[in-house]
Amino acid sequence: MSDIARLAGVSVSAVSRALRGSPEIGDETRKRIVELAHSLNYTVNVGAQNLRLRQNTTVAVIVPSLSNLRQRLTEPFFISLISAIANALTDRGFEMLLTRVEATRTNFADAYFTGRAAGLIFTGQWLGHDQLNELALSKVPFVVWGEQREQQVYCTVGTDNLQGGRIATEHLLEQGARNVAIIGDFNTLELKNRYEGYLLAHRERGLEPAADLLMQTSFDTEAIERSTEALLARNKPVDGIFACSDLTAMTVINTLIHHGKRVPEDIAVSGYDDIELASYFRPSLTTVRQPMEAAADAIVEALIEQMKGERPASRRLVTELVKRESTAPAQMKPRS
Fold this sequence. Notes:
One of its GO terms (molecular function) is DNA binding. The chain is of the alpha/beta class. The protein has 3 domains: 2-42, lambda repressor-like DNA-binding domains (434 Repressor (Amino-terminal Domain), Orthogonal Bundle), CATH 1.10.260.40; 51-160 and 292-318, Rossmann fold (3-Layer(aba) Sandwich); 161-290, Rossmann fold (3-Layer(aba) Sandwich). It is built from 12 helices and 12 strands. The protein has helices at residues 2-8, 12-19, 27-39, 46-53, 76-91, 110-113, 129-137, 161-174, 189-203, 221-232, 246-258, 292-307, and strands at residues 58-64, 95-101, 119-122, 142-145, 155-159, 180-184, 214-216, 240-243, 268-273, 286-289, 315-317, 320-322. A 6-stranded parallel beta sheet has the order 2-1-3-4-5-11, covered by helices on one side. A 6-stranded mixed beta sheet has the order 7-6-8-9-10-12, with helices on both faces. Strand 1, helix 5 (76-91) and strand 2 (95-101) form a beta-alpha-beta unit. Helix 1 crosses helix 2 and helix 8 runs parallel beside helix 9 (189-203). The N and C termini lie far apart (75 Å).
């Protein structure tokens, strides 16, 4: 701001008033100051001003616009997450600004720096770890939904994905399945940990799943169908499938039925998330429930603490298994 004042030949306070649109500054002077600010890529941090004045009660919830990510606004899990966050913000007197940004852009925090929001919530870890650390060190208040990482200085709230993968796989093994496949996009940290839980459940029983039971696929219906068909074309037995999201599990089940397989009599299937559709799907879906309301409360509370100048610890919430018809314990016979 001092550079603008020097170039415009006015005081710093005059620059501040002009950029705020104060009527005390003449139109010609204001225009000259605004043009200089644009040429220097200067933006007023209205967010900081509003926080000092206790005026800004808006929180930006940021969703990426990359089509290959699971985080699409039409994806039921993220609809549930965003809805829960909106409720948590409303309960605490805040408004929500839902915004989408290109994950490859560098101005992903513009909602804060331009003053539209007093804090940020990122709906996943699509930003680089170093970028998030740098943003945290600049004292921007934000919380990330996702897994904790090593050497992390920013705050995350997520669920225990390793334990979730473990309990889903344990359940399939307890039902007698011995050739359990896993389907998902394991390029993400959350799903990598679900896969580690899948391996752990096997190894605790002295088992080692075949390498070709790991089906890497994007969260795309056609890709999931192709992976399921490739699994069936192995000419090796498969009697259980752990799908790493509920929509993936539903696509898997539809594909299995299309190819003449019965669920769960021939192949038992477990999902992950416990979206609302899981209980209405047929067969109703056994799945790992992520506690959305508790997660949203934890996210918003952590953000408010940061806005007060505090440094909240990251949190990892507990998941639970919800048993339904797609594994149907009462109908399945243990396999030898």
